[in-house]
Design brief:
CATH topology of the largest domain: Rossmann fold
CATH superfamily of the largest domain: Thiamin diphosphate (ThDP)-binding fold, Pyr/PP domains
Shape: globular
Structural class: alpha/beta
Distance between the termini: 42 Å
CATH class of the largest domain: Alpha Beta
Largest sheet: 7 strands, mixed
Number of helices: 12
Strand content: 15-25%
Number of strands: 14
Length: about 325
């Protein structure tokens, strides 16, 4: 095992996939000599050359469109969108083209591409560098949406995404790039897309989260454990397809459910998890399904105090656990 940060695990995954398959290439803004704005591709252009680590124009639509064309030609593009906030110009290409090729061609055409992007708040990036966009894309049939919360999962899931025969959106919690550390095996491995991870076993309440919120949920669970509360933390990891069995099994065991996400509360992705629980686990519930999320305001503020007000954190999650367990 090697101890590494989330961003190091992502870099290592791309390095290994570039070495494994000559069809893999990376494209995006500043991914070459600069190594990406967060340095996720640092050193890769020196190792694989400018034909496989390709600096793109400042045009997200073209980054994705080129990736789609390359994937249709049996290449394996990894398209980096510098911030998830900038992905919207490419929405038509992703939702209307990449997601639907396999269906509309009756299985004759596949689009094996990965779209990577850092998402979420916590770095004082303000309105245009802090958005959570996962709910938009998890709504679209034909897209897989993956969000890791540990270095182990980040590497294993990204390698699976590169090898997947159809498009995968791979969102990375940028607040955790260097804050989250963990052991990563030195030998080859992958983490399958789909199954959730039971990050912590518990008996009193189930906490469902992903990305930075899954990391925070584990910290909160440790806090309330000192008070005798046993919280189970389910790291969803894959938002589309979501692991409904893991959700059901956890709620059937604990009888209470808290869903945590940092996007706006209304129609955020966590609302779908709450709906699954209400629809399929009602008879096992000992209290209402509760959500903890960001407020319904246009964006994460630049101001540190206002940013802290917007975002869930371990203390807020711990308080929500206590309230629901006492219900």
């Amino acid at each position: 095992m090697a101890q590494m940060t989330l961003i190091q695990a992502i870099t290592q995954a791309m390095d290994e996939e570039l070495a494994r398959d000559p069809r893999v290439f990376i494209t995006g803004e500043d991914v070459g000599k600069r190594g990406g704005v967060f340095r996720a591709t640092m050193g890769l252009i020196e190792k694989y050359g400018p034909e496989r680590v390709v600096d793109s124009p400042l045009a997200e639509l073209s980054i994705v469109a080129i990736g789609i064309g390359a994937a249709l030609a049996d290449l394996r593009p990894i398209c980096e969108i510098q911030f998830a906030d900038f992905i919207h110009p490419a929405f038509n290409q992703i939702a209307n083209e990449a997601a639907r090729f396999y269906y509309r061609s009756n299985g004759q055409w596949r689009v094996p591409m990965v779209i990577r992007s850092p998402y979420g708040g916590g770095i004082s990036g303000a309105l245009y560098h802090s958005q959570s966009v996962e709910a938009f894309f998890a709504h679209v049939p034909g897209l897989k949406v993956v969000i890791p919360s540990t270095p182990y999962d980040a590497k294993g899931l990204l390698k699976s995404a590169v090898r997947d025969p159809n498009p995968v959106l791979f969102f990375e919690p940028k607040k955790g790039y260097r804050a989250i550390k963990g052991d990563v095996p030195e030998e080859e491995y992958i983490v399958p897309i789909g199954p959730a991870r039971i990050a912590r076993e518990g008996e009193d309440i189930s906490v469902f989260a992903y990305g930075m919120m899954a990391y925070y949920a584990e910290i909160a669970a440790e806090q309330v454990a000192q008070e005798g509360i046993s919280a189970e933390v389910v790291d969803l990891r894959t938002l589309a397809p979501v692991d409904r069995d893991a959700i059901r099994n956890s709620v059937m065991k604990t009888g209470k459910a808290l869903v945590v996400y940092e996007d706006n509360l209304t129609l955020g992705y966590g609302a779908e998890i709450a709906a699954i629980i209400a629809d399929e686990c009602f008879e096992y519930m000992d209290g209402p399904v509760k959500r903890l999320a960001g407020p319904d305001v246009p964006g994460v503020p630049f101001s540190h105090p206002m940013q802290d007000f917007f975002m869930p954190n371990p203390n807020k999650i711990a308080d929500a656990i206590r309230d629901l367990v006492a219900y």
